[in-house]
Amino acid sequence: MRANIRILGTGDIHMGRRPKRLPSHLDGPDFSTNATWRDIVDFAIQERVDLLALTGDIIDHDNRFFEAYGPLERGVQRLADHRIRTVAVAGNHDFDVLPRLADSLASEYFILLGRQGHWESVRVATEHGPPLRVIGWSFYQAHVYQTPLLQFPHREASREADELCVGLLHGDTRQPDSAYAPVAPTELKGLPVSMWLLGHIHTPQLTRDEGSAPILYPGSPQALDPTENGLHGPWEIEVASDGTFNFQQIPLARLRYETIDVDLSGLAEPEAIDTRIAETLQASLRTHSDIAPHLRHLACHLRLTGKTPFHRTLADRLQALDETLFLETGRASAGVVGVTIATRPAWDLQRLAQGDDPPGILAHTLLMLHDGNEDDATRQLIRQTQERMSGVYNAKPYNPLRGSETGPPDFEEARDWLIRQARLLLDELLAQKPRWPDHASDQLSEN
Ligand SMILES: [Mn+2]
Q1: What is the pTM of this model?
Q2: Is residue 41 part of a domain?
């Protein structure tokens, strides 16, 4: 019986970049992207894969040449010792440095496809099946505004009938006007390629439609900042002899960023908040460690929810929290990288909204924001807020902080921000003005 062909696919390792917001005692070699690369190589050898496919942005920047050279060379050499080939394309981050590294490595086991923006293919022998073809295109400058698919060499891809053909490309399927090689999924599906492995988007994403080639963004194998929530790791793709694919994400990442909801409802005293947070973190850490045995640190963004009379004092109380809160179990730890206060005060908004005093008007506005059926004035307020937020987002000094991954704040984000601020303001109003009708005393209802 013939075993299945196994391909390990990954990209966007960004070797040389450090994961953001780690506690300083963890910000060392164990959580570096070089360690991620080493883990990937170990796994490829252990699984005896037929091919390691890299979808670009392997190196973070051209100034990382020396930093990346040693680890990359050692990895490629170890793979070569096990006769495993690595086939790569360059992305917008390593368009310059990856070709130079490939030249220096000068190994027949490391193949960089599609230099100077010219599609190129290679035939790779496999241990577990017939040879397969890999076709790829590399970035040749930091920005590419046109789809590389215009130059796609149809004949090159489909040279032999029934041959498995894997497409490797670093590009953006989300925006037609992207500066990073925009490609439309429908165009990808129309080409003679059996499966697409793409790079650039760090969130893993698999698209499988009946009758067309699967498209996989393996995502970054280790998350690099708090926006990269969820499970990360390379993908193992098995190809059966009848050409069917089986995709599996391997939870290799040592670090995971996660947004964790902590419900503060029903707490009788403010001291209980810390315990509730610690318990929730502990439980979350256990769950994530079970899914991913390689997990060593869970970096949490806490989202405090529920209805609580301590709503107003939370901000002060939590200011220091992200510094101090650190939990350790046997193998893994959890820490806090940020806190969003999304609790609701223990007021009865419906009842408050009946008043025509300032708290009443504010409560009425809050109800409209919650339900999403604002009047014209409130919609105008959201739009103005969105404009002001975008102004900050687009401000020059923040250029270096802005990734290509996120856009300016949208209408919904502006509304959420207004809701949070309005709740705090309402709390403040009611606390300061005991002469307003006593809304405060009898309103501890849960919902
Ligand atoms: Mn990229």
Answers
A1: 0.80
A2: yes
